[in-house]
Amino acid sequence: MVRGRIIVDTERCKGCGLCAAFCPKGVVHLATSLNAAGHHPAYLRDPDGKCTGCTICALVCPEAAITVYRTFSVKASVTAGGMCALEAAL
Amino acid sequence: MARELLKGNEAIAEAAIRAGLDAYFGYPITPQTELLEYLARRMPELGRAFVQAESEVAAINMVYGAACAGKRAMTSSSGPGISLMQEGLSYIAGAELPAVVVDVMRGGPGLGNIAASQSDYFQVTRSAGHGDFRPLTLAPATIQEAIDLTGLAFDLAERYRMLVILLIDGNLGQMMEPAELPPFRQHTSPTPEWAVSGAEGRPHRIITSLYLQPEALERHNLKLQKKLAVIAEREQRFAGLYLEDADLIVVAFGSAARVAQNAVEAARAQGMAVGLFRPITLSPFPMRALERLAPRARAFLVVEMNAGQMVEDVRLAVAGRAPVRFYGRLGGVEMLPDEVLQAIEQAMRDTRVTKNGARMLDAEVQR
Amino acid sequence: MIAEQPVYERPIGLTAAYTHYCPGCTHGIAHRLTAEVLEELGILGRTIGVASVGCSVFAYNYIACDFVGAAHGRAPAVATGLKRVLPDRIIFTYQGDGDLASIGLGEVLHAAARGECITVIFINNAIYGMTGGQMAPTSPAGMVTTSSPTGRDPRQTGHPVRVCELIAQMDGAAYVARRSLHNPAEIRRAKKALRAAFECQMNGRGFALVELLSTCPTNWGMTPVDALRWVEERMLPVFPLGEFKNVP
Predict the structure, then answer these.
(1) The domain that contains B8 carries what CATH number?
(2) What is the pLDDT of residues C51-77, one digit of tens each?
(3) Stated pTM of the model
(4) Which chains touch B (3+ CB pairs under 8 A)?
(5) How many domains does chain B have?
(6) What ipTM does this complex have?
(7) What's chain B's Rg over C-alpha atoms?
């Protein structure tokens, strides 16, 4: 099962809302707080861990303000070549 | 190098090649097109860039592009084309790009005609585009001088990161004279540190003339003005004839100066103390030399193939210390020496040197 | 074992500068895709961009390669000058619809006719953004702008200009495609088109142009999300997407 996480550069974000609109899991929202430029920055509110790290939010972000991470809870075995199964799965 | 019989337009083209011209972008317009045609043959032979653009607007912007890469770029045109290029010329000035533009003047305004004229003096020296800037303008009077000033134009353009305009008229462009071409210059100068070339291994460079913040644009303009001041200090050029004892000084440039010279020689033969002052740089105008001549000149007679444009620069230099008369022909008519001789005689008659050395124009006296 | 991997990061082809674009303006997406493509093709270090005059005049502050600013509409001519003296560099222009389809139409058509080996990125948002929302040559019929206040009337102002269809007629054009930035799937296709356009130049096949349908939330008077929908409902019918030319 794949789990994802995003980090939003809250000062760079202009609160345009595209990421929130296109997130398939609806876990990206605009904060009520304001950044220095007076925008409501996007953030991840994902208590149930729905984010899969699909990168759609980053794809639609006009400011390239989103970094997306993916976590694999899979048994990783190290193959002879030192390549761990994890990398193979990517 | 031996002297050859060379046509002005072609001589300038070959001189540019020998000065290391990397790229030429032009557009057909009489009386300059032989320059383009010549380079259409020669530039590909030398593996250098040549494009006949779709318009003068495109041509000058191609020059801008090549100049951004620190390459020696040139275009040529006539009055109507220069009018279309003026936005590009202003961008070149604003971005401090070295570029050479050859302007072969013709009759104007409007479509005018293809005869030789000097009616674009203001356009080139005063308003070569929007904003506070003036190009460096060189005005040869012979094919040999055009060749020499072409090489100089590229050097000055690079030394000052400036727009340099080589200003001639249709006569000089079309006529042939024996002249000597310079040897090929080894022009493999390295890419200037301000030029764009691809930011591999260094911070990326930006060439622009945009300064949104007024104070920043003012600083930029002051820098450009300071450069113009240095140029005015160092680059004023003129030629003189019989100036040592001249009473009446005829002032003329380009091919009008050749006609005026004939008249001056004729007047000298009749014993008149007449001299010829020929500006070679029109901007910076050779003010210093004229200011030195003004106190002892009885009068100045400015001869131009226009309605009177350089005459204003002469008046600025003379600053009222002597009368400044004007004789001009318009519409592409080139005056004959006799007409200038008559104007000289008229000016001599009209001016009297009073006991206290004041110089009076009778017309002014009667008023 | 649980190992977290970054799967998407801000491209190094973008500078650290904050953009001046309005919130939701898809110029930002086009910039990001351009930076990603230049990076992935390994040509960022030998690319020179030519910025136009319009909202994207400051593209040179955002895309991290050598850049020059061109006069309004003249970027293809400036790019021609650059390419002719630096044939081994990658030269691209980044222009809006006022710049390219209005004042600069002559330059882009002739650059294509000459087959200049450059890449033109054409952002079509059907309006003049920087000057505050005037009608552009690509404004659809009926579109209300500050200079077509009662809706664009083709009998008075003519019809939208379809640039890709025009450029594709030029024998010198080797790659011509129109994509859009109005949803994730189209953004992915837009990136592929940009990559193909730069590869066209890298292989010396001739003139390449990619038109990207874009939004202008501020001057359209819409939210960023509604603006994307407007592209779909009002622009796609006028500007069909696709690859118009791809000469091998």
Answers:
(1) 3.40.50.970
(2) 999 999 999 999 999 999 999 999 999
(3) 0.95
(4) C
(5) 2
(6) 0.93
(7) 21
